[in-house]
Amino acid sequence: MGIPSFYKWLVSRYPNIVVKALPPQDQEHNSLLLPNPNGFEFDNLYLDLNSIIHPCFHPEDPSNPIQPTTFDQVYSAVFDYIDHLFSIVRPRKLVFMAVDGVGPRANMNQQRGRRYRSARDNEIAEEMENCLRKQFEAAGKQLLPNSESELLDSSIITPGTEFMFELSKKLQQYVTSRMETCPGWKEIKVVLSDANVPGEGEHKIMSFIRHQRSLADYNPNTRHCLYGLDADLIILALATHEVHFSILREDAGVREEQPMCLSASKSSLSTVETKSFKSRGGFKDVKVVEEQAITEKPASFIRKAHQFLHVWILREYLEVDMRIPDPPENFKYDVDRVVDDFVFICSFLGNDFLPRMPTLEAHEGALDLLMTVYKEHFRILGGYLVDMQRVQDSNSAFIELKRVEKFILEVGKFEDKIFNKRSQLRDRKIKQIAAYAVAENEDLLPEILKDRSSTSIGIPSSSEAQILKNTIDFKFKLRACIRKKGDHFRNGDLGEDKVRLGNEGWKKRYYQEKFSAETPSEMEVKRKDIVQKYTEGLLWVLEYYYSGVPSWSWYYPYHYGPFASDLKGLSQVKVKFQKGSPFKPFEQLMAILPPQSSTTLRKPYQKLMTDEQSNIIDLFPMDFEIDMNEKRFAWQGICKLPFVDEQRLLDEVHKVEKELQAHETERNKQTADRLFVRRSSLPEGLLVSLVSQGSPSMLNIASCGIRGFVHSGQETWSSTMDRPILSLSLHASQEIKYTSRPLAGTTFLDKTITEADIEATQL
């Protein structure tokens, strides 16, 4: 998820960081060997696969009723999408595919909230769908009937489920096939980090990059391209200090004309064909007469255009935009220290691990405020906020907490102005709501039933082509209905504002409503604990971004963040993390899934979530509060779920774990990355060592240009040594030396950004 509105702010303030990615004109595999038509080449392509899996699982194109209903259809769409991205980037050396594994506890709370909210939203959507379907039937508009689907619950996109376990097998087959048959993949090494490898996908990618940078013969001019949709990928790319780095992402506002699937059938618009297909949500097998081209693959959807975000240009912008107007004496401006400080101050806007401060909203210009305070008060602060060169030094601090406290308290001085302006905007919204109420005096469903197509209501439509059109119309209207239902602004339902930020006494009311603290002494005790936990979170996030997971068990134990003005005493906080270990996949499923998704687990696990006699039934509420917290859209509300008591949960889970069958035990275990390499590319000595292994001892593979150790796993090598593509278990080196600046020998491109490219900030 990352920082809300961050990407929009970034491309608005620094427009030259983004360029359009040219769509591949020739889908033939041989064309992948030609120079990249975008004008720049890449060595390594990193894929955050969850950013691909989700749109293939539930494509957002209501104009195409042919939606996926089976696992295999989703897998096929995923592979087609990877092919498409590969043809855009055309990597020359390596592809790293990362699926989200079990994440740190700090992220599980947000995952839990999202899945519980999704379960509730699905129940509401089902009710609305049934109601709308009845409206269509009453109007004589026949629809495709319902049938079964394997894809009714998107929570199966979680480590430990059958869906994810089978996806790993299919990905291994896909990689082997591509390396054996596709010329563009001939010289490529592939690393697959599937859902059984602990860690979030993007952070597994960053860990891999950090390890490769520590190789003695690492090429500092390696050209990286990372595909993903989360805004925090940009922050993570900055934190690597790799200069030649680009982010590839979808351009949400532009669609290409090609169908999603590379192998999609092409039929003339004037040709009438009859096809049998399945559709998600589930429609039975139906033969339809199609009057326009529809792909043969149900998982297909219209492909969006893509764009590159060049991190080296963003570094140029930051170097210019964050220059210090009144620096301390003997101060040396260091763009890498500035980049690290920028990464750090972005943490105050909230992320997947810490809630945002109520003071700061990205869409209100919070980053402009943070950067302005940073520059104008730099002399008072005394220097940079963080020194990430020390992140691995246990004898010195990598964050200057005294400076951080001064900085954030200066930001807090703007709170009254921010809240007053926000209050004025709220009053304006209330007036607009009143106008909406007069103009919209109809029930929700009847309103959206105003026909979008040319078919007349009341006239029976029985032709198969008309049924298809009706179904498309139905999907458009259902989506509009659901969106409107979730828009509290249009519904005139902003709720009661009990805190009233900007009005006298707002801080007291905040602690009463959000933290149940009534008396001044209770509020001060709560404030101090929040400062302690929030400061821990700031350090946890920073270390996570630069060095890896500092603690698997740490989490921020509140649903809300502090005010900037309340962080007094931050500099006195002492922090020491306990590393711990990640959950097993089934343990995480228990920690984040709602009871409605319990069927993804075995019966003994299900009972822990649904049986009233369960010792931990209180951890799985069917009903819970969603605090809209002055937000417009339902998805922005805060799910006030109880935080999972880790020890209680694990004690009960361990009791039933022994009932797992062999294949379920495989789904529940932690594994290592897999390296796919062409047998002919391995040094003879390494190959001999692999073939002669009597046990899975570790072999250093640095001679292949990858830092780490491999072993042959459990395969019988006498039967696999002749295969052209080898699959090896890849383990990272434990000790690496991290440096938070470009490596010696880095070639910098000519700078193109000047002060004229930066607009003055208006606070």
TrEMBL record:
Q: Which Gene3D superfamilies match?
A: 1.25.40.1050, 3.40.50.12390
Superkingdom classification of source: Eukaryota
Q: State if Hydrolase is listed as a keyword.
A: yes
Xrn1 helical domain sequence ranges: 332-719
Keyword 4Fe-4S appears in the UniProt entry: no
Give EC number(s), comma-separated.
3.1.13.-
Pfam families attached to this UniProt entry: XRN_M, XRN_N
Q: A GO molecular-function term, please?
A: 5'-3' RNA exonuclease activity
Coiled-coil parts of chain: 646-673
**Occurrences of domain Xrn1 N-terminal (ranges):** 1-251
Q: Which UniProt keywords apply?
A: Coiled coil, Exonuclease, Hydrolase, mRNA processing, Nuclease
Please provide, in alphabetical order, the Gene Ontology terms of the cellular component aspect for this entry: nucleus
Q: Name one GO biological process term.
A: mRNA processing
**Family membership:** Belongs to the 5'-3' exonuclease family. XRN2/RAT1 subfamily.
**Function of the protein:** Possesses 5'->3' exoribonuclease activity. Acts as an endogenous post-transcriptional gene silencing (PTGS) suppressor.
What is the protein name for this chain? 5'-3' exoribonuclease
In its UniProt entry, the species of origin is given as Linum trigynum
